[in-house]
Amino acid sequence: MAGLLTEIHIIDGRLYTGLQTPDSLYKYGMGNYLAAFERFHTDSGTFKKSLNYYAKYPDKLTDIYDKVDDRIKALADSVNKISAQKRKDDLKADSIKMAHKADSIKKAAQKPAKAINKADSLKKLKQKHPDALPKK
């Protein structure tokens, strides 16, 4: 029962975070609920009967919901762990890209200085040996 309730609550959360028009809730929700019932080899009628039974015994229902809560927290923790790793990988890739870009900017800034140095060396050559370069 705890596994099915976990699935039901995950489906509810997924449905209610998206579009909330009655048609889309029915269209997309029913298929998800029916798939969950099929995975747990039950149907909606049996689920309702079980839920009504446990509603008469709040202690049992509380125990079941404690298990549901633990499962949902474990799932959320695993999703958060994967998301954190993905963000870390993205930042690492971005920092490598930014380092390359910064290096490219540094190289581009140095190139004009080399061109100026070449022009200066030609001027110096003309000054030292005026006959070395033919004048046109």
Automatic annotation (TrEMBL):
Please state every residue range assigned to the domain named DUF4296.
Answer: 1-75
Which regions are flagged for Basic and acidic residues bias? 120-136
Disordered: region residues: 102-136
Q: Which domain of life is it from?
A: Bacteria
Q: Provide ranges: composition bias, Low complexity.
A: 110-119
Among the Pfam families in the record, one is DUF4296
Q: What is this protein called?
A: DUF4296 domain-containing protein
Q: Which organism is it from?
A: Mucilaginibacter lappiensis
Traced from the root, the source organism's taxonomic lineage reads: Bacteria, Pseudomonadati, Bacteroidota, Sphingobacteriia, Sphingobacteriales
